[in-house]
Amino acid sequence: MNITSIKIKKFATEGKMRAIASITIDDCFAIHDVKVIENNGKVFVAMPNKRLKDGTFKDVAHPINIETRKLIEDAVIEAYNNAEAEE
Fold this sequence. Notes:
Layout: E1 3-10, E2 17-25, E3 29-39, E4 42-46, E5 49-51, E6 57-59, H1 66-82
Antiparallel strand pairs: 1-2, 2-3, 3-4, 5-6
């Protein structure tokens, strides 16, 4: 599996969400609304999710194993760190 494209849209807001990413895998599968969140000085990636009727959230798309999660997280955080802030 290769991440062939990452698009980052940074936000200049006071909340915890810092950016939204879209990733393309192997030039044939796209995942949108991947969130870049900063909490307590640490940046992490949250996969796209939806709110259920009981108020909890459930991932819509997510990696199945630790290696794939790390690959996606590292690539998105690197792209985030290299992106220019959208104004």
